[in-house]
Specification:
Number of helices of chain A: 15
Strand order of the largest sheet of chain A: 1-2
Strand content of chain A: under 5%
Shape of chain A: globular
Number of strands of chain A: 2
Order of helices and strands of chain B: HHHHHHHHHHHHHH
Oligomer: heterodimer
Radius of gyration of chain B: 23 Å
């Protein structure tokens, strides 16, 4: 009864709209409006100063057929994603598994793994540029202790990308926390039952932990893919896109087109293409998830049957 | 798994995660001539605290600090007020278009910043806001989808009977929001404040795009520019400034980690 009265009070009145008005306005002014505008200008030749002219799909055509830098930067970004996404998932999952063991001080270890992600990417670059220093850096010193002569990381075309991946891995603590929460939500009875049935650790991991963690894996996978494809600040500050454009990421290419060469329309086209890539990848991962993501409600259904 | 193995691995990884921090702090404290030695020295012969003063004075970092503080405080205040109002609206009322609008809100979390970057620059340019702190503050006063979502989930766990009792006593919707919902939301509000403070303090791209004049720089942007000249600046000063700029987010994290760990993980998945 109470609920009904409350609903009548709310329905049709203007009050609820007043409460959500700040977001409605912000959405139109700072998200939806700019998005539409960005789509529009991607069909124009739009310099910051000077004549604006409609060019149809020219920007998109130029991008694919007449701009080698587009393909270079796209390939660099894909290469980074291919290295970073699996490594990041594996390391975060492994750390979460370790933190999920019944040992002391897990709170402390958890804070240690999360700490790098609370500082800015610029600070992170600062620290790593010094860690990677070819002559006085601590990384090459550590490598020399085990008999390896390290490269001049940030000035070496083939190693700068690896340096980007390593530094990115360091700042990904929140993924560990999300995996850990997923692990903690797996009912302990399942593990007990597996132990009674005599299942070993490996079997338990593949038959119980992984399937029940798959929704979390899906979430983290999508977040990691999106962040990998948008890598910008770290590349700007750590390698500056170099040496010889070996870490010239796609986002940097789009940024430079807008704010260095002032080709706003062309850059908007670049950005929309990246948006489409991210959207497609997200959809593909979602589609594929029917095959490998396992929801607990389905288990219950099976148990009931 | 064997306990000793778990401990060894956890300690090993912790050392790997902490080593760069140690390297930063120890470099910041070394006398400059000890920075460029090989093999590196793990402990400096003396602690050279003057690096902090010298590093800080190489750029107008005090101005940057004031700008960063203004942006962080005002944008956080704005995010708290606006996001909680909107969250209350979505959680406690039924209205035409609610489900649709909430779906739109969730969808906007997935839009990459690249797509809105150029038009936002043009919009703020048109408003005459370039080279002011406004582009970094004003949008925060119009609600952020992630915070709205987080607060809405939290408000849904507050019993509706409390609202109804207050309404019978003659309280208006706004009074219910202000007197009942807001105080009960404190843990979620702290989480939003922490996320927003970290995001504002650490933001590089926003200041980079919207600020050209050094008098308007924030600390993170200032550090980035300082770094651009890293060959000309001695490493111990660079590291000293990096330590100083990284301290506030670390302190925030230490004081609020309970809220982060408990809520971030839960909210991310639902």
């Amino acid at each position: 009864m109470k609920k009904g009265r409350h609903l009548r009070h709310g329905r049709g009145a203007i009050t609820p709209y007043l409460f959500i008005l700040p977001w409605l306005f912000g959405f139109l002014a700072f998200t939806f409006g700019p998005m539409l505008f960005s789509l529009v200008i991607s069909f124009f030749d739009w310099p910051v100063v000077g004549e604006v002219s409609f060019v149809g799909v020219d920007n998109y055509v130029t991008m694919f057929t007449d701009d080698p830098l587009f393909w270079t930067s796209l390939w660099i970004t894909v290469k980074f994603a291919l290295l970073f996404v699996p490594l990041n998932m594996l390391i975060a999952l492994m750390l979460a598994l370790l933190l999920n063991q019944k040992v002391r001080l897990t709170g402390l270890f958890r804070s240690v793994f999360y700490l790098p992600s609370v500082i800015s990417l610029v600070s992170l670059s600062m620290i790593w540029a010094w860690v990677y220093h070819g002559e006085f850096g601590i990384l090459n010193y550590a490598l020399s202790l085990i008999g390896i002569e390290g490269p001049d990381w940030l000035n070496d075309e083939s190693w700068a990308m690896v340096a980007m991946v390593l530094a990115s891995l360091w700042g990904q603590g929140s993924m560990v926390l999300i995996f850990l929460a997923g692990l903690k939500s797996i009912p302990t009875e399942l593990y007990e039952a597996a132990a009674i049935d005599g299942a070993g650790a490996v079997r338990t991991f593949f038959r119980i932990t992984l399937p029940l963690l798959s929704p979390t894996i899906l979430f983290n996978l999508i977040t990691t893919i999106i962040s990998a494809f948008q890598t910008l600040v770290l590349a700007m500050t750590l390698t500056g896109g170099g040496p010889l454009q070996s870490t010239y990421f796609y986002a940097m290419y789009a940024y430079d087109n807008a704010f260095k060469y002032f080709k706003m329309g062309y850059s908007a086209a670049n950005s929309w293409f990246m948006f489409l890539i991210i959207l497609t990848l997200t959809l593909l991962v979602f589609k594929s998830s029917a095959l490998w993501v396992f929801y607990e409600s389905e288990v219950k259904k099976e148990e009931a049957a | 798994m064997k306990k000793w193995l778990v401990y060894s691995l956890l300690i090993l990884f912790s050392l790997l995660f902490l080593a760069p921090f140690y390297w930063m702090v120890i470099t910041a404290l070394k006398p400059p001539e000890e920075v460029v030695t090989y093999p590196p020295q793990w402990f400096p012969s003396k602690l050279n605290w003057s690096n902090f003063v010298e590093g800080w004075q190489k750029q107008p970092f005090t101005t940057y600090l004031i700008n960063s503080t203004i942006v962080t405080l005002l944008a956080t205040l704005g995010a708290l007020i606006s996001s909680s109002l909107v969250a209350y609206g979505f959680a406690r009322f039924r209205f035409r278009g609610r489900e649709f609008l909430f779906m739109v809100l969730l969808a906007t979390m997935m839009i990459p910043w690249e797509v809105t970057m150029i038009p936002l620059y043009m919009e703020f340019n048109w408003l005459g806001w370039i080279n002011t702190l406004k582009p970094l503050i004003v949008p925060a006063w119009f609600g952020a989808p992630f915070y709205i979502f987080l607060l809405r989930q939290f408000i849904l766990t507050i019993p509706r009977e409390l609202d109804d009792a207050a309404r019978i006593d003659g309280a208006s919707s706004f009074q219910i929001y202000f007197r009942i919902i807001l105080p009960l939301c404190t843990p979620a509000l702290i989480l939003v404040a922490v996320f927003q403070m970290l995001a504002c303090w650490n933001d590089y791209l926003g200041p980079l795009i919207f600020l050209n004049d050094m008098s308007t720089y924030t600390l993170t942007l200032g550090l980035g520019q300082f770094m651009g000249a890293r060959d000309a600046v001695d490493t111990s000063s660079l590291m000293a400034v990096t330590v100083l700029i990284s301290l506030p987010p670390m302190l925030i994290f230490f004081f609020a980690q309970r809220y982060i760990v408990e809520n971030l993980t839960g909210a991310g998945l639902k």
